[in-house]
Design brief:
The structure holds two protein chains of two kinds.
Chain A: H1 5-22, H2 24-29, E1 35-37, E2 41-46, E3 63-66, E4 97-102, H3 103-114, E5 128-138, H4 148-162, E6 181-190, E7 194-201, H5 208-228, E8 232-239, E9 243-246, H6 248-253, H7 262-276, E10 283-290, H8 297-311, E11 318-323, H9 332-340, E12 346-351, H10 357-365
Helix pairs in contact in A: 3-5, 5-10, 7-8
Chain B: H1 9-24, E1 32-37, H2 39-47, H3 58-72, E2 80-83, E3 88-93, H4 98-117, H5 128-146, H6 148-159, H7 201-204, H8 207-226, H9 236-243, H10 248-269, H11 271-290, H12 296-307, H13 316-332, H14 337-342, H15 346-350, H16 359-369, H17 372-379, H18 382-387, E4 390-396, E5 401-406, H19 409-420, E6 427-435, E7 440-446, H20 454-468, E8 472-478, E9 481-488, E10 491-496
Helix pairs in contact in B: 1-4, 1-11, 2-3, 4-11, 5-6, 5-10, 6-10, 11-13, 13-16, 17-19
The chains are: A alpha/beta, B alpha+beta.
Chain lengths: ~375, ~500
């Protein structure tokens, strides 16, 4: 049922959206500000949507309370929050407003702000699963699906129409024609058909700050792609001189030392694609983050070959993000640009720091592939 | 609204019964119309301040979201709501137990009695439901004409100043405006001439002296004339309505916001009394009359929830009801007047009983004539303060905590009165509408020991400047030093200034 308040509530949500959009850069660069709540909601602390008034400063004001306690006893609560003043708990306190926003909405806001184009998925029509849903009633069917209530309703209707119903002795006997059965319809259930393969260099030169950047960036990429496809699978590969698949948690935490052979990761990625994700059915997004240091020029050549033959023909987009680090030489991005400058399936981006995350996301996703 | 359930017959019986008891106790109220609401509608109505229709504004949506959240999380629920109209409308929450509904009804009777009889409600619009609906229609019309965003932005600006009103102004009987003829009096008539015998005249009142006097007076008169407003004006909103260069629709919106602020002001001025009065009567009506034996425990449970105190929080229900009970007892036992005031012996005071039996009469007098400030000022006594274990708390810079500062009677009472002064809002007046002769606006914060929240003050100043369209300054004290905040074209500056 619609209520009058829905309009005002809608207005309020709209204002919130505007605020989030305004501050999006800040939220994106400070990944911690967003606490995930539940499966599909995030909670964003939003400063002051309220209307300013001339009012007393809190800390000088003090108040009056009632109850036990000695002079000098603390009233509890942390120092920043003033205890209620003057009124019983019939008003919410003045704190930051925690606004809950669904990931879907967040992705939309980001899309609007970064002007990201919608992605044209490939091959969606072919890949749907079918799900049965009970949605109607029919006159034939197995007894196990008999709709008791509807059957008796039909029976009483018939009896009244025939004049055999006696209100004083309400015996209702359904006959064959009265029986009603649940019927189902098969609905196409869009199946998850996008996979993001994250690869990250975890060699000694990637520090905590670099990983933080990768984490924030991948959160937003995830959010965006989730909003574009029904269900997105994420896979994680870490590599130094060797590559292996790990879970999300390990992906962001692991720090190894040792050399870097990027080709190892690309090999694994190519294998994953050829084994599990046939490209005619899947939208494939490999993302690779590194500080741009590779072991040898030879290995870089191997990488380029691998990309050309075994990766690029199958993917929607290959993204390479180079996180600036004090140790890395930053050579790899140059090599990639040299070989793939013309190829629009390859996007490279240099991420200079947290503030650059947003621009980098725009570079990656701005093509709408 | 289809969400309003038909008022069930069994509740109508309860209403009749409770109102019968209330009338026998001497309560005198407007007819009350109850509506049973589900929690969603209840939250909606609560977000609208108890009214079914308000002008469209996002703030109501925000309040609704907060109410709905805290209901869903089980943090709070709204038991009752009643609005000051004739007939009074009150809302019951669907699904509350019968005991709860009885408490609410008894409580509501006393609230409505208070609305009807308390002096500070005597000038409120008792047809405010229509008033609010009219406001809504007017605002909608402005929105249709000028665009929703424009009007909503403007409402934001007006709401920012909604506490800058003078709730007492309706009750002040002012002398009729001085007639302008007086100003035209010939200055020669009383020219500052000192009394002198004829032959001394030229010595005592030499022409230069007379000339000087005349000039001085003229200047004085000029200064008086230039002063605008003549006296500092507390009703800042009214001043802006009269003098700010606003469009018609803007003036209309500002008037609407001001009107509603005045409507709600008496409730803020009598919160403690109003809730105390209602709690006093729900407890008497229920425990003496309306409860069955089986309901006592449930009643006690609900009542204790309402009366609960927690550290650092003043419960107006508790303070109010205890104070009313204290008054009744004191006037029943004759504990008032000169003799009582002058009695020094605690022991004698404790056993003081003159059997005057005036308690009930005094209660009704108090509910008619007092507001929270006068109520506390007169009846919050040393004995009461000690009995009820009141303390004053404050923020201790040393420990970084909120702490109990004192249990001293004088300090507690001072603190309490300060909190209630001007409904807990800072007093801001229009000092000068032609500041520095540049048609700028000068506001002054009457500093009474508490600084303003500067961040909010800046934003509010910005909003004031939007209305005034010329620069606006605010004279205040921050950490003991006079400061002049000034907003010009949205830019804020701050400089030291003399704070007289």
């Amino acid at each position: 049922m619609s209520q009058k308040i829905d309009l005002d509530h809608g207005r309020f949500r709209q204002i919130i959206r505007g605020k989030i959009k305004q501050n999006l850069r800040k939220y994106i660069s400070q990944g911690e500000m967003i606490a995930k709540k539940g499966k599909n909601m995030v909670s964003i602390p939003l400063p002051s949507v309220d209307i300013p008034h001339f009012k007393h400063g809190d800390k000088q004001q003090g108040g009056v309370g009632q109850g036990e306690g000695n002079v000098g006893d603390s009233l509890g609560g942390d120092g920043d929050q003033a205890p209620g003043k003057g009124e019983a708990g019939d008003r919410p306190g003045d704190h930051l407003l925690d606004i809950e926003v669904s990931l879907q909405e967040l992705a939309e806001i980001m899309g609007e702000e970064l002007e990201l184009p919608r992605i044209q998925p490939k091959g969606t029509e072919k890949i749907v699963a079918w799900k049965d849903k009970y949605s109607g009633i029919r006159t034939t069917g197995p007894e196990s699906l008999r709709h008791f209530r509807r059957t008796y309703k039909q029976a009483i209707r018939r009896q009244i129409a025939m004049g055999t119903y006696d209100a004083k002795n309400p015996v209702i006997v359904p006959i064959r024609d009265d029986k009603r059965y649940r019927s189902w319809r098969s609905e196409p259930l869009p199946q998850s058909n996008a996979v993001i393969i994250y690869m990250m260099d975890v060699s000694g030169s990637m520090g905590d700050e670099q990983k933080e950047i990768v984490r924030i960036e991948s959160f937003w990429i995830d959010t965006w792609l989730q909003s574009q496809y029904h269900g997105v699978i994420s896979r994680y590969i870490i590599h130094d001189a060797m590559a292996k698949e790990v879970d999300r948690d390990t992906f962001f935490r692991t720090r190894e030392s040792g050399g870097t052979m990027i080709s190892s990761a690309y090999k694994l990625c190519a294998k994953m694609i050829s084994d599990e994700y046939p490209s005619e059915l899947w939208n494939i997004y490999p993302f690779h983050f590194s500080d741009g240091d590779n072991w040898s020029v030879d290995d870089t050549h191997t990488c380029v070959d691998l990309l050309k033959k075994d990766v690029l023909p199958y993917v929607n987009l290959f993204c390479y993000g180079q996180v600036e680090s004090p140790y890395g030489s930053g050579q790899f991005i140059k090599d990639l640009t040299e070989h793939f400058d013309e190829d629009e399936r390859v996007v490279t981006s240099e991420i200079k720091g947290k503030d650059a995350i947003m621009d980098s996301i725009k570079e990656f996703l701005g093509k709408g592939r | 609204m289809s969400a309003i359930k038909r008022f069930p017959a069994y509740l109508r019986d309860v209403q009749e019964e409770i109102e019968g008891y209330a009338k026998n106790f001497g309560l005198d109220f407007f007819p009350i119309i109850y509506e049973v609401l589900d929690y969603k509608t209840m939250n909606e109505v609560a977000a609208y301040g108890g009214f079914p229709t308000r002008y469209p504004h996002w703030r109501f949506g925000m309040d609704y979201e907060q109410l709905a959240k805290s209901y869903e999380w089980g943090l709070s629920k709204i038991y009752e709501m009643v609005i000051n109209t004739n007939p009074a409308y009150a809302y019951l929450l669907e699904g509350n137990s019968l005991v709860d509904q009885k408490i609410v009804m008894a409580h509501v009777c006393a609230h409505v009695d208070f609305f009807k009889n308390n002096y500070f409600f005597s000038k409120t619009n008792r047809k405010m439901i229509d008033g609010m609906a009219n406001h809504a229609a007017r605002v909608r019309r402005h929105m249709a004409r000028h665009g929703q965003d424009v009007v909503e932005d403007f409402i934001d600006t007006c709401l920012s100043l909604e506490n800058l009103i003078d709730p007492m102004s309706a009750y002040i009987v002012r002398a009729p405006k001085a007639k302008p003829e007086e100003d035209d009096n010939d200055p020669k008539d009383h020219s500052g001439r000192l009394r002198a015998k004829g032959y001394m005249e030229s010595f005592i009142n030499p022409p230069e002296y007379l000339e000087k006097q005349r000039k001085k007076r003229e200047e004085e008169a000029k200064r008086q004339k230039r002063r605008f407003p003549e006296q500092p004006q507390r009703d800042v909103m009214q001043f802006l309505i009269e003098h700010a260069p606003l469009d018609h629709w803007q003036t209309d919106v500002l008037e609407i916001v001001r009107d509603e602020a005045y409507y709600f002001a008496p409730q803020a001025m009598t919160k403690i009394m109003n809730e105390g009065w209602a709690s006093y009567w729900h407890s008497r009506i229920l425990t003496e009359k309306a409860l069955t034996a089986a309901e006592i425990i449930d009643y006690a449970d609900a009542n204790s929830g309402v009366m609960a105190t927690s550290p650092g929080r003043l419960n107006p229900y508790k303070l109010g009801v205890e104070l009313f009970r204290n008054i009744e007892e004191r006037w029943n036992r004759g504990q008032y007047g000169k003799e009582w005031d002058e009695c020094d012996s605690m022991d004698q005071k404790r056993h003081w009983d003159r059997r005057t039996g005036l308690g009930r009469k005094r209660l009704f007098e108090v509910r008619r004539l007092y507001n929270d400030i006068t109520f506390i000022d007169e009846f919050f006594t040393l004995e009461f303060c000690v009995d009820q274990k009141f303390y004053a708390f404050g923020f201790s810079e040393r420990s970084g905590n909120w702490e109990i500062m004192s249990r001293e009677f004088k300090k507690v009472k001072d603190q309490l009165l300060r909190m209630l002064t001007n409904r807990g809002q800072p007093v801001i007046v229009v000092e000068d509408g032609n500041f520095e002769n540049r048609s700028e606006l000068l506001l002054r914060h009457i500093h009474e020991g508490t600084d303003l929240d500067t961040a909010q003050a800046r934003d509010t100043l910005r909003n004031t400047a939007k209305l005034w369209t010329r620069p606006v300054s605010l004279l205040t004290k921050i950490e003991g030093k006079g400061k002049l905040l000034r907003c010009e074209d949205g830019n804020l500056s701050e400089r030291s200034a003399d704070y007289p």
